[in-house]
C-alpha cells in the first residue's frame, strides 16, 4: 500500500487524500473538490454547528459510560465507538427521516441520531435481551454481529424502495449500510456491491475504515484504497476524513441525495481510527504502537470542532460547560436505568421464535413453565 | 371444480402463479428463474406474465439471493427464493441460519421475514456432485426456520401457496426426482380449506407397521407397502410433509396402533431426521413398541457418483428388509 502523505499543516493523510472541510486544528475549508469535479461543502447555521458539537460530546460520553459499566461488570461486553464519533454523527445527521439505516454493532452514534433511546443497545450487551428497538419505527435495523451480512439486507431493502417507486425526487427514500474495513473482505459485502450496481439500488455504503479488524491491520484486508473498489462495480467511491464531522456530513448527504434521485449507489470510505479496543475483550496494546494512537489523538473529531467554534466565537466556556454537564447527566441517567434493567423472565426466551408459533416450541415452553413452577416455595 | 392431472413441477408452477396473482408483494428471485424459467422450468412463463420486477433474475451468488430477500422482506415484500440445487445452498447458509432464522427473535417480533427458500433436493436423476444432496437436517436443526417438503402434485400446489402466505421463514424442499410424476390437482381449491402446513398425511392406512417418509421417499414407501400387502402385511405410510416442526401426534397415534416403525430418508443416517424420529417415538410410544424403531437411510458418505446412486438410495427392497427385521424382533 502506498505510503501516506502530509497536508500543508504537516498532518498525515492517506495517499490520494480525502475530502476534508475542517482541519485537525479547527480551520474551516470552504469546499472540497474531488477528481471527478464533485464539490462538497456545508452551510450550517451557528446553532447547527453547536448542535453537532453537542451530538459528538454526547455520544462520546454515553460510550464512555458504557465502557465504565463493562469494566464494573455490568455489561458482558461493549463495542466502543471512541474516535469514530464524527463518522457516525456526520453520516447519521445527514440521513432524512424517511431514510433507512442498516448498522453493524458499533453504530451507537447513528442510533442516537435516529432518535432511539440510547439505552436500547445496552440490553444486548448486558445480556437481558437481543436488542429490541422497532426497526420500522425508527428506520434503523437491528444490530448485526456477523460481519457484513447487513449490507445485503440494506441492498434488498433498497431494491424494494425502487420497486415501490420511492426514488426519483428529492423526497425519495435512500438506504445506508454501515460496515468496517474488515467487512470489505467478506464475500457478502462484495455481493452487495454487485447487486447494488446491477439493480442501481438507492444505497450508500458507509465504510468506517478504523484501520483494524480486531488485530488485523488494513494491510491484511486490501492492497488498494477501499473507496477505489466501487469503480469495479460501476458506481462512485469517495474517501472522506472520517474524523471531520462536516466532511462526513457533506459527503453522506450528497451520496444519499444521489441515491434518492435515482442515481444509484455510492461507496464512502470514512478514514478514521478506533481509539479503543475492538471490544472490551480485546487488548490493542498487543498489535499497535502508542505513537500511532497518539498521532490519531491529534486528529480528534471533538477537539477540532471545539477549536473551530472557539475561533469563530460561536461558543465559549459557558456553552462547552453546559454541553458537558448535560451529557454527564444523560450518562448518569443511563447508568441508573441500565443498573435497574430487570433480567428477563426465563420463560420469555420461548417468545418470538416464529411469527405463527410452533407446536413444538409451545410444548417445550409449557414443560419449562411447569418445571420452573415445581420449584416455587422450595427455596430454589 | 377444475381438477387436472399434472406433474409435480407444473403444480408448483401453478401454485407460484396463483401466489403472484393473489399478492402483489410476492416476488420470485433466483438464478435463471426469469427467461429460462429455472433449470427445472418450475418458474416457466412467470416472468413473461408478471414482469422482471416480480420474477427477478439475479446475479450468481446464493448469499446475495437470500440476503437481499431479507431486505426486501423488511421492506414489506414476500420473496420466494430459488436455490438452483441442494448442494449450492451452503454459500447462503450464513444468511439462512444466522439472519433469516433469527431476525424475528432478535427484534422481539418487530421484524417478520415471510421468505420462502425453494430447494430442489435429493438424488435419483444421475447428476454430478452437489446436485443430489439432502441437506434438510441442517435447516430442521435451526430454530426459527420451518422446513417442509411435498411428495405429490396436489400437496405441491397447496403447500407452496401456504408457505408463501405464511409469515414464518420456510425452507421448501422439492423432491426433484418426482418433478415429472403426475397426479390430480384441484386448481380451484381455496387455500383456506387446506390442511395446516405442519400436518402429516396418512398416505396409506395400515395396521401392521408404520413407515415414515417424506419428499422423494414417500413413493418408495408406498411401493414397499403395496408389495408388503401382497404378502399379507398392511403397512401404514405417513408422509411427514413438515420436517420442522414434525407432526408428532399423527405419528404417535399410528405407532401406538401398529407397534412398529421404520423411518426412510435419503440423507445420511447419522444425526438425520430418522434419528430424531426414532428417539421421539421411543420416548412417547415405548410401551407400545414391539421392536426398536429402525431406519433406512443414505449411508454416511458424500453423495456417491451417479452410477452408484441406485445402491446408495433407499429402495423398496431395503425398506422391506427393515420391515422384516422389525417383525423378526
UniProtKB/TrEMBL annotation, chain A:
It comes from the Bacteria. Transmembrane segments: none annotated. Residues 57-325 form the Dehydrogenase E1 component domain. Pfam families: E1_dh. Keywords: Oxidoreductase, Thiamine pyrophosphate. NCBIfam families: PDH_E1_alph_x. This is Putative branched-chain alpha keto acid dehydrogenase E1 alpha subunit.
